[in-house]
Amino acid sequence: MRTHYDVIVIGAGVIGCSIAYHLSKRGKSVIILEKGSTAGKASSAAAGMLGAQTELEEDSPLFRLGKQSRTMFPDLAADLKSLTGIDIEYEKNGIYKVARTEEQVVRFQSLINAQNQLGEETHWVAAEQLQKGEPALSTDVLGAMYIPNDGQVSATKLTKALAQAAVTLGAEIREFTEVHRFVKEGVEIKGVETNSGLNRAEHVVVAGGAWSETLLKEAGVNLETYPVKGECFSVKTRKRLINGTIFSDDCYIVPKAGGRLIIGATERPGLFDETVTLDGISRLMEAAKKVVPGVGEAEWEKAWAGIRPQTKDALPYLGEHPELKHLFVATGHYRNGILLAPVTGEVIADLIDGIAIKKDWNSAFQMNRIPVQVQ
Amino acid sequence: MRTHYDVIVIGAGVIGCSIAYHLSKRGKSVIILEKGSTAGKASSAAAGMLGAQTELEEDSPLFRLGKQSRTMFPDLAADLKSLTGIDIEYEKNGIYKVARTEEQVVRFQSLINAQNQLGEETHWVAAEQLQKGEPALSTDVLGAMYIPNDGQVSATKLTKALAQAAVTLGAEIREFTEVHRFVKEGVEIKGVETNSGLNRAEHVVVAGGAWSETLLKEAGVNLETYPVKGECFSVKTRKRLINGTIFSDDCYIVPKAGGRLIIGATERPGLFDETVTLDGISRLMEAAKKVVPGVGEAEWEKAWAGIRPQTKDALPYLGEHPELKHLFVATGHYRNGILLAPVTGEVIADLIDGIAIKKDWNSAFQMNRIPVQVQ
Amino acid sequence: MRTHYDVIVIGAGVIGCSIAYHLSKRGKSVIILEKGSTAGKASSAAAGMLGAQTELEEDSPLFRLGKQSRTMFPDLAADLKSLTGIDIEYEKNGIYKVARTEEQVVRFQSLINAQNQLGEETHWVAAEQLQKGEPALSTDVLGAMYIPNDGQVSATKLTKALAQAAVTLGAEIREFTEVHRFVKEGVEIKGVETNSGLNRAEHVVVAGGAWSETLLKEAGVNLETYPVKGECFSVKTRKRLINGTIFSDDCYIVPKAGGRLIIGATERPGLFDETVTLDGISRLMEAAKKVVPGVGEAEWEKAWAGIRPQTKDALPYLGEHPELKHLFVATGHYRNGILLAPVTGEVIADLIDGIAIKKDWNSAFQMNRIPVQVQ
Amino acid sequence: MRTHYDVIVIGAGVIGCSIAYHLSKRGKSVIILEKGSTAGKASSAAAGMLGAQTELEEDSPLFRLGKQSRTMFPDLAADLKSLTGIDIEYEKNGIYKVARTEEQVVRFQSLINAQNQLGEETHWVAAEQLQKGEPALSTDVLGAMYIPNDGQVSATKLTKALAQAAVTLGAEIREFTEVHRFVKEGVEIKGVETNSGLNRAEHVVVAGGAWSETLLKEAGVNLETYPVKGECFSVKTRKRLINGTIFSDDCYIVPKAGGRLIIGATERPGLFDETVTLDGISRLMEAAKKVVPGVGEAEWEKAWAGIRPQTKDALPYLGEHPELKHLFVATGHYRNGILLAPVTGEVIADLIDGIAIKKDWNSAFQMNRIPVQVQ
Q1: What is the pLDDT of residues A241-282, one digit of tens each?
Q2: Closest chain A C-alpha to D36 CA, distance in angstroms
Q3: Where is A343: in which H helix or E strand?
Q4: Sequence-distant (≥ 6) Cβ neighbours of residue D118 within 8 angstroms
Q5: Is 3.40.50.300 the CATH classification of the domain at A91-150+227-311?
Q6: How far is D295 from chain C (nearest CA, A)?
Q7: Which superfamily does D4-77+155-224+313-374 belong to?
Q8: Per CATH, the architecture of B4-77+155-224+313-369 is what?
């Protein structure tokens, strides 16, 4: 069994798999170590919305990171299909951010202006016109901010296809493998010790989602992320009920292939618990019926939950550890892990290759932007 | 392959399996023909409530049938455990029929009087006292009619244990076997033709639940039953939230082994469709939270639906066909199939054995009480 | 609820859904009546092999039907993706018909000659060369007949996409709807009676797979088909173990997207029973390990079974009833339902439209080629 | 949220839940911290054999521990049923240790003598007599060592019932809670730090099965256990095929309630990987068919795997840490976790209560019997 690699990636979620895929494309030898199964946690729980302009509303390094990542999906989808046979169900079907109060109307219209000034496509759709395009919407909806370039993928398929593509390109994945501690020589990270032995590498990337913090404590790093549970459910319809994704303050409704709808998501900070509560989904149901009454007639499929990693300033951590050499971190993507996976893979691969990344990303997402307590 | 039996039972739901069990105990050779799988339809969908005094409120042949069947459960549970190792989870944990309006208070108290006069145990529990016994109940509940002798079983386990016990006693079960037509000689039924050949028997019993009607049309019998879909769901709690079953006008909540709760059931007449609608379960959720607010915190498990057979006068059909000899029917049990399974098995076995059954049952449940149209 | 249609299709398997899709594309109003769920039986159990030259080896109307259908897949895949978002995973990855005895070597080489003379692409691959292209094959394999134009799809996705596409084009699907009898006026079929009421139509198509025979008995037609159970299982591998499909006398191994392999299939005639036996899959496992030893290391996924409709002369029935007007039949596709679905949809749509189909197909697949006993 | 307890138990498998149950019965306040779900790992994977004389063949502290635990099951089953409604399916149905070679005949007969001299019930059953009692056994079987007092339970139900009973008696269970490190004050353990905060307790018990070692490294303890993966599968039969459990060198076959059979188990040391391999189950199938040919006809249900904790000298660790005060360990039960759960719960509860346990148990199972390397 091989034990020395160019790069060890810890975590086989969408972020870890994207990093492994990008590194493998560049000829690096990569191993992914995963304590459970590939795509076993939040990456499979996501609705797969690509809401670059929906969720990230104002100009900022994160806004630009999201937009960059969104542009990568068409080529990525084609490459993954060709390498693995898996269709990630990428669709640029647009997102409607619907207003149900006058306050929202005003707020969204000002958002449209702000985004237009940045050169982003988005416009207001008045109630009457909205009913024509999306007749299933409640007549209570006063209008919507429409973002034509946002879209979606299948989150599970994206993650599995990235993993499979990395393997096809030469990477290894070792599941049910828990990393116990880092192998340090002075300030240099040289590998990791796991429940199935020692692995050495030139570089180690921690991409463990909400579980990254625990692991990093091992290296004396206090990352200050926290988990946020999100509950979702899915239903099936005979005919596609909505064309674009409907995004309201209380829920979102994402139309998937073959008439499925994914409806999400609650926000329960502080919990690693992956159970779904009756209250969580019953509130989402009420919220969904208010925006698209016809979902009441849809066929129930199932409910699930995922644990997303959030940070104190709501920005991900992307970068090398300031003091420990060769230790990289990519976590804290919160609700945007699917959207940000492609660009995160590229950024980490660039950093490992010694290629400079955008300056504002470097400073915005570095690990010591919030005083990191090295114990 | 044997092709001649004392009795052919059509349908491996709880009714058919109970009939086969009773006949096998009496030494009859029995085959159950089932078009799908054992316990595959409504019998597995039921919550397993034994609401002899809860659902059947007033003196009538059906009320007495239910009470008789309820008394059979303790011995049946013991016999099935010993024959099959399966614990049917029989529990005489009582049912609270809760009142949330003054109108209900009055109605339930008069019901109590009526039942007491019949010698049935039941009494009124005022709000304050109710909170002591069932502290999880909403303080909106004004009191409850308490029925100590009603209880519950696991519907799926009851059905599977009856099937397995019948097999242990010598019966056969042939699944995925569809009955196409009856073998008639004059007015005598001599067997059935199926997709896997001909089977002959001295007697044929149709116990096909909501699907019985279709089959009987083959024999020129128009039974006039109709399907009623019921949707349910289950949640899990760490501690048993309620002790007795809570029965309200909009839902019931049945506490099962290990902290599970089953919450049911919607009523959708005319549908054979076994899908669960978002609306169906979201309404049950709202109803359940009104009666026992703490269920909101419970962990979601799953949702399902079953198709119950209802009749025009809401009474089951139990008896021999008035014109076709040796053809028996046991269907139309609607919401009370689990409760009525033991007595139904006994009644049909008696009829086949030529033992007279109670006169009022005979007349109340016979096939030609509603003018049967022989085509 | 609408009750009159241009065409009623009975059965929402791959054949019924393809017919509904083709008719809907031509502007017909169509309803599919399905007694269970869409793609609920054999259509979901199939491995999805498109073995036009593999399974159908010699020139015949059926051989030409299969080849015609195979050519339809590329355009169909594109159309279904665009209408429904569903990728049917069509792949023209070739099939290796492997020889493990000298007798097979001789037989396959003569088959190659025969097919080449018909203008079909296929050639012999000697053991050494075979090991280069498919290094996972056992060194016991003496060579293979290679068919580059055969391929595969996802059988479940094909069926669901056809159903969804038909709905998108205006068709209706009514599940859990059992057809009891045909509505006849003299020799004309005018509709069907179901458990949810009467439906009338200009034409009725029976596409009920192995269950068609039962239904047709209702119309006094004795079709003489019989069920053949096939058991399968699937495993998962990290890397794609084989490139083409491996077809041996005892089993076939089909490589699916993302490293899955489907291995099938047993042949158990006469059974409608959908259970999987230990013996069935343990024999397939031994057979698969002999051809591709590395499958032993693969991760177990699941096992299942499907019931295929076979006929006495091993040819499907495609056509109008010789005496009952407007009653069409499409069944008996046995192991080739997935391959033949596109052409079957087209042929039945042509017949309904009054367009002449190929003469040899007309005579080879007509209902009264085997003396049909009209009772 | 309460944060101080009498005892923290780490691990909600059968061992942890039994400890929590025994402590709760004695009035201790207990919290179980579980990184996944209750009964989520090996405790649900076990076949539930209680092979005190089957698996532990010769007189030794472990043999006596097993026998003691076996005697506890009848009362435990009754108590758990009464506290939780869960039937753990305890059955004293006997185990046949079958001989298929002359060498085994000799070996088993000498084993019988040895056990008889210890006063244990067991006797030889010759081939002819064996066929009478267990007619499904292969005629190749030369005879069997019969152990009437061994038996079985449902492993999953036992674990869930112990957990539920502990909760009913006042314990808490916190799932999805990972312990990061121990809180030490000098040589005293005062609690644990988890991903959801700090918990303090008078005593901490590590009952994490194969995952205990990792955790203990945190406290500087090198326990030297290793994981052994075991793969199993289950089938269903109409009639109970065997009465007792059949134990051969290559597999065991355990008859469960309602005609199910569990067949296990492979032994793959060093793996934490919970996947099932085709090879693993195909070998078990062949082995099972050799002993009980009729299982070939049984209906396939499912396959799974569990990770058992083994130690260098094949004895469990039960006791207090020799240097760190208030830290207890209960792991290394390997294939006997279900059998040993009751006595383990009692032993650990005794140790915490300051009650002396049997001397030979104390020395045989203590942590520093193998030189423990405190780093």
Answers
A1: 999 999 999 999 999 999 999 999 999 998 899 999 999 999
A2: 9
A3: helix A337-353
A4: D59
A5: no
A6: 7
A7: FAD/NAD(P)-binding domain (3.50.50.60)
A8: 3-Layer(bba) Sandwich (3.50)
Structural fold of domain D91-149+227-311: D-Amino Acid Oxidase; Chain A, domain 2 (3.30.9)
| CA distance readout (Å), A286 to A105, A264, B131, B262, D326 | 22, 12, 29, 21, 50
**Is the predicted pLDDT of residue D373 greater than 50, yes or no?**
no
Cβ–Cβ gap A285/B282 under 8 Å:
yes
For tokens 């614990």, what's the residue?
B87
Q: What is the mean pLDDT of chain B?
A: 94
From C273's Cα to the closest Cα of chain B, the distance in A is 5
Query: Using the beta-carbon criterion (under 8 Å), do B214 and C272 form an inter-chain contact?
Result: no
CATH superfamily name and code, A4-77+155-224+312-374? FAD/NAD(P)-binding domain (3.50.50.60)
Contact A65, A231 (CB under 8 A): no
User: For residue C305, which of C212, C233, C256, C250 has the smallest C-alpha distance?
Assistant: C233
Element containing residue D219 per DSSP (H, E): none
| Secondary structure (3-state) at A183 | strand
Residue C371: predicted pLDDT:
60
Contacts of D276 in chain C (CB under 8 A): 299-300
Euclidean distance between CA atoms C269 and A120, whole angstroms: 63
Q: Which CATH number is correct for C4-77+155-223+312-365, 3.40.50.880, 3.40.50.300, 3.50.50.60, 1.10.760.10?
A: 3.50.50.60
pLDDT tens for residues A85-99?
999 999 999 999 999
For chain B, list residues whose CB is within 8 angstroms of any CB belonging to chain C.
175-178, 180, 195-196, 211, 213-214, 217, 227, 270-275
Mean pLDDT of chain C: 94
Which residue among D180, D217, D272 sits closest to A177, beta carbon to beta carbon? D272
**Model confidence pLDDT, tens digit, residues A36-65:** 999 999 999 999 999 999 988 888 999 999
**Which ranges in chain C belong to alpha helices (H)?**
14-25, 42-45, 61-84, 102-117, 127-133, 155-168, 212-218, 278-291, 337-353, 359-365
In this model, does residue D142 exceed pLDDT 90?
Answer: yes
Residues of B in contact with C176 (CB under 8 A): 271-275
Query: At B186, is the secondary structure helix, strand, or coil?
Result: coil
In chain B, where the domains are located: 4-77+155-224+313-369, 92-149+227-311
CA distance to partner chain D, nearest, from residue B79 (Å):
13
Whether B279 and A299 lie within 8 Å, measured CB to CB = no
- State the average pLDDT over residues C65-79: 97
Say if residues C172 and C31 touch (Cβ distance below 8 Å).
yes
CA-based nearest residue in chain A for residue B280: A296
Q: Return the CATH number of B92-149+227-311, one of 1.10.3720.10, 3.40.1210.10, 3.40.50.880, 3.30.9.10.
A: 3.30.9.10
Token look-up 């078009």 returns: B35
Q: Which pLDDT score, from 0 to 100, does residue A219 have?
A: 76
| Residues of chain B with a CB closer than 8 angstroms to some CB in chain D | 84-87, 89, 91, 160-161, 164, 167-168, 172-173, 238-240, 256-259
What interface predicted TM-score (ipTM) does this complex get? Answer: 0.92
| pLDDT given for residue C207 in this prediction | 97
Q: Nearest residue on chain C to A170, judged by CA atoms?
A: C239
Say whether A86 and C258 touch across the interface (CB within 8 A): yes
pTM over 0.90? The answer is yes
* Helices and strands counted in chain C (H then E): 10, 19
Q: What share of chain B has pLDDT > 70, as a percent? A: 98
| Interface mutation vs chain B, best among A282, A285, A291, A292, most B CBs within 10 Å | A282
Inspect the interface and report whether the beta carbons of D295 and C278 lie closer than 8 Å: yes
